[in-house]
Structures
1.
Amino acid sequence: MQYNRPACVDQFAELALLVGLGASGDGPEALSQRFVDGMADLLASVNIPRSLKEMGLAEDKQDYVAVTSLASARLVKNNPRPLDEAAMRHLTMPPMQATAPPCARSAAAPYPPQ
Amino acid sequence: MPGALAASCAFGVAGTAAAHALQYPVGDLTHAAHGDGSPACCPM
């Protein structure tokens, strides 16, 4: 969601309003980020793992996951924002996969890297 | 349960994307359930 947010600003902003995460005067950029953060908090509240490491993925398998996930061509093609190998590596490797909460590390690790 | 049905109807139309693509190899390696792994990948 954090990766896709730039391609889904209006949709995420609308969803933020629907789930009561802000008011329409807050602006679509802020609302869309609030929706991503709100979903991360919701999932954490029901004990969904917050990183690949928490799911039990070894660090030396992050590259394998990045490359292999591209084989799901239909899902990759359906993603709102284009996904290539570099983008998948960004999602599966540090700093995106550090131990901080999803929102904090996503904000610290924007894609494309700056 | 109605919420789960509504969600399923939604992605039955829209399809799924990056989070689910990521979960397949992760689930293969960790044996995590798809229902745990996919939402784990969602915020990313």
2.
Amino acid sequence: MKQAIIFKVNGKDQQVFAEPWWTLSRVLREELDLTGLKVGCGSGECGACTVLLDGKPVRSCLMLAPRVKGREILTIEGMAKDGQLHPVQQAFIDHFAVQCGYCTPGAILSAKALLDKKSDPTEAEVRGALSGNLCRCTGYVKMVEAVLAASETMRRGESAHGR
Amino acid sequence: MKPFEYLEPKELRAACGFLAQYEGKAAFIAGGTDLLVSIKEGRVRPEYVVDIRVIPDLDHILYERDSIRIGTLATLDEIGHSPLIREKVPILAETAQQMANPGIRNMATIGGNLCTAAPSADLAPPLIGLGATVKIMGSRGERKIPVEDFFIGPNENALKDAEILTEIRVPIPPPNTEGVYMKMTARTAIDIALVGVATLLRLDDRAARVGEARIVLGAVAPTPIRARKAEASIKGYAMDDQLLESVAKAAAEEAKPISDVRGSAEYRREMVKVLTKRVLKKTLKIISEKREEK
């Protein structure tokens, strides 16, 4: 029997009627048209379905819809503010850290979660934060570079579109 | 996913009540990172999913009378970052940080890791080495058993019908005890261990002889196991290279690995030897570094 799931997504209050066996990934993609997150493996290993739940990265493909009642979700669509890309998004572009783009939303959100907690991460910490986001294209080097560059940008408090 | 009824009991008794009422057709869900995968892969088909996450007082990490009490719902991330655990039993925090990946760690719980009872459950070797016990609640009341006895076989735990694991109690080891857990995996994250070894060591104050040793092996037997013969072989002796070699060999002999997609039995047995040496060396290093600090 469907239940009303009331929660906040990208800063906006949402109400979705969902069956309890629907995953959060299905709710976000199909009920709210937030197709930035992808379902890669469906079993929590690839990270393409990563969203932030109250600021922490989670596997939306393994989360049942009722679990997010009253909680706050951030998807990749919610990263840009007033038309300006988040420094992590901009850094991914500037450092060529995007190829096919499938893993990108999840990786960017994982990176944001790290930088919100730790403004000066080591390379090892960045790799750790991205360790759950599998990428078949880039080999990770540019992604790590992008995140370290974004951390510097964020520390200096620069706006994202100044180059 | 196949449809199911979703129940959210507000207290433990109600949760167990549901399991009793829907005998065999109900499953508890905590983090969901094991259950949902099993459901998706068709290995379990519960008609009722009982979500225990709104039940209060199941996610604590507390210090009480020389023990740390960890609620069954404490997540791997919470355990990895808990200042209390990092201070008193750092091996648990370090183990939690080696598990799965950040997204899973924010969802998965210590109770779930134990209840799924995979032979490779990473938290098991350190908990067994520390002599931890679990508290189980059921219709007939409460009982406590050692973590070692909670594992019965592959994916088989000691819970009887309508029982629930509520808490893990970890005795704080005597001073100067250090321990390390290492897991061998194909990749640096995400993977299930093909071999896991935890060791806890306490050296005698003066002679640097082994006062107490625990060596616990994961993923190389139907359950996590203590390598008791290996442990006995070093008690009272000074750890030198020769002893390291022989204790590692002894531990490997106590392993009962199978061949599967993660590795052959022969490779796993050899890796028990390699990992046992590594964890012991690292533990000895930590002990000597801490000695120098004093």
